[in-house]
Design goal:
By secondary structure, the protein is of the alpha/beta class. It has 15 helices and 27 strands. It has a domain of about 100 residues: 2-Layer Sandwich (GMP Synthetase, Chain A, domain 3). A nine-stranded mixed sheet has the order 3-2-12-11-13-14-15-16-17, sandwiched between helices. A five-stranded antiparallel sheet has the order 1-18-19-21-22, with no helix packed on it. A four-stranded parallel sheet has the order 5-4-6-7, with helices on both faces. Helix 3 crosses helix 4, helix 5 packs across helix 6 and helix 7 crosses helix 8.
Length: about 525
């Protein structure tokens, strides 16, 4: 067995609850802004965050919240997101984070699967929320802000708790984000207090923030593990002021970077593309930026360097997945290497395994990346089969990504074993779209793949076999799908073919479809 480890020394992982770790420096930071709403300037200090989460936890307990009870949050990036998240954590509950662009049907599926009993949202998504809770265990909806006939988040507040509800840190699931994993339909990823605390601690020596005036812009959604952990929890833990942006637009982001004196920016490749090429960027003084980190999808070396040269600071990237809480690799500022996703995080072991023979591979050889460490999820909710297919008996998580590791310990993700499509950093599971499209009355068979695209990363494309005697247009298929899924899952391209190539076992041979584009 050839195990690759971090060039950095292991770190101590404290046995503490998540919120207590995030606010570990509260005494020194109490009056410092923790969260600022970008559009309005609404501000919560670290002391405010502590007080509000204690009051929310107290109110939830007064209303009978039991350990492990699930509260769902469906909201954009606003400061109150962190209050809900950590209020529930302090009450011993579990949060499930829902994409607010989901349709009511998609929201309902997650509410049912997670077993949620309460839902917190914002007025803009109230109609979707009301429709989505039909047939679920959700009995209460609260809004952040005000809406007629619906209690507000502050109505949930009670007597502040002095201490968090005691839970078993290594076993208690604090958050249930949903991921398609290496394949298939979305599944609840069980992440414990220890998973999240460990990953924050593991990232500290890599994403070291050197001064007391650090300000980060949070445009990547908090419902996604990257936004949740890297932008919200890890930044707050490091004492960084987080400026939230409910919806990304380039001008708005550039205004905030300039006006709020942002020093750190976390992005995905489509945003890096804009920084490299959009003419608007030339109108802004971005000299205050000290570093830009890209993640969620592979970033090409040329694009990273073009953006870095234009904005005058390093653009580096990291690698991870929801099942890894999420970071297993990241590039320390000052250690950029073209095309690298960074070095292995402390306390993390990696193997590169031949996908055919199962043999371990050495430096410079390409195979599937396997990872073991304290950030590896507890498993998939209610899905032991999927858990066993992803994490083996020895604790190695099989990422489904093909990578190589060089002699300096940098990992390069070069291909994907798994079939997941990455559209603008979001996961689009082909199986989910195929299951939907095949319900169209004119469709006999279908296969969905990702087509490389400079801006989006990959575009979902459907290859469709029509039933004999039936007709359908590409636009008709696209509209059929668009009416039932979130925007990022839409089919962007359609091609009608005579037969879907399959193996003897019936598995779709997607590589043949990719070859013909």
């Amino acid at each position: 067995m050839i195990i690759h480890r971090s060039p950095l020394p292991d770190v101590e992982i404290p046995d503490t609850a998540l919120t207590e770790y995030v606010l570990k420096d509260l005494d020194a930071l109490r009056d410092r802004p923790a969260l600022i709403d970008g559009p309005t300037g609404r501000t919560y200090t670290f002391g405010d965050l502590d007080t509000h989460t204690r009051r929310l936890a107290g109110g939830l307990l007064e209303r009978g919240m039991k350990p492990g009870e699930v509260l769902a949050i469906m909201a954009p990036n606003i400061p109150e997101y962190a209050i809900v998240f950590h209020g529930v954590a302090r009450a011993g509950g579990t949060v499930t984070t829902i994409n607010p662009t989901y349709t009511a049907g998609e929201v309902r599926h997650q509410l049912q699967d997670a077993g949620a009993t309460r839902l917190v949202t914002v007025p803009a998504f109230l109609d979707t929320a009301r429709e989505a809770i039909e047939g679920t265990d959700v009995s209460e909806i609260y809004v952040i802000g005000e809406a007629e006939g619906v209690p507000s988040l502050t109505d949930l507040y009670g007597e502040p708790v002095a201490e968090p509800v005691p839970v078993e840190q290594a076993e208690h699931v604090v958050v249930l984000p949903y991921s398609s994993g290496t394949t298939g339909l979305p599944k609840g990823v069980m992440l414990t207090h220890r998973n999240l605390v460990a990953n924050i601690a593991q990232c500290e020596p890599i994403l070291s923030y050197g001064t007391e005036d650090e300000v980060a812009l949070a445009v990547l959604p908090f419902f996604h593990i990257y936004g949740m952990q890297v932008l919200m929890n890890a930044l707050l833990s490091a004492g960084v002021t987080v400026v939230t942006m409910p919806r990304f637009d380039l001008k708005g982001a550039l205004d905030l970077i300039r006006d709020r004196k942002v020093t750190r920016f976390f992005a995905v490749p489509p945003i890096i593309l804009a920084l490299a090429k959009h003419p608007l960027v030339d109108e802004y003084d971005l000299s205050g930026l000290r570093g830009v980190m890209s993640g969620a999808a592979p970033l090409g070396a040329e694009l990273a360097e073009e953006a870095a040269e234009r904005i005058g600071c390093e653009v580096v990237q990291g690698y991870g997945m929801t099942e890894l809480s999420p970071v297993s690799h990241a590039t320390p500022y000052g250690a950029y290497k073209a095309g690298s996703s960074g070095i292995t995080a402390p306390n993390t072991e990696c193997r590169v395994v031949d996908t055919e023979s199962g043999e371990d591979l050495g430096v410079g050889e390409e195979g599937e990346l396997w990872i073991r460490g304290p950030q590896v999820m507890k498993g998939y909710l209610n899905n032991p089969e999927a858990t066993a297919a992803t994490i083996d008996e020895d604790g190695w998580l099989h990422t489904g990504d093909v990578a190589r590791i060089d002699e300096e310990g940098h990992v390069f993700v070069v291909d994907r074993v798994k079939e997941l499509i990455k559209y603008k950093g979001f996961q689009v599971p082909p199986a989910e779209l195929e299951a939907l499209i095949v319900t169209h009355p004119a469709v006999a068979d279908v296969a969905v793949i990702g087509i490389p695209d400079v801006e989006a990363g990959e575009l979902p494309k459907a290859f469709i076999v029509l039933k004999e005697g039936h007709e359908a247009t590409a636009e008709e298929i696209q509209e059929f799908v668009a009416g039932q899924v979130a925007g990022y899952k839409k089919i962007r391209m359609v091609e009608f073919i005579d037969e879907i190539p399959k193996s003897a076992s019936g598995k779709i041979l997607r590589r043949f479809l990719r070859d013909q584009g």
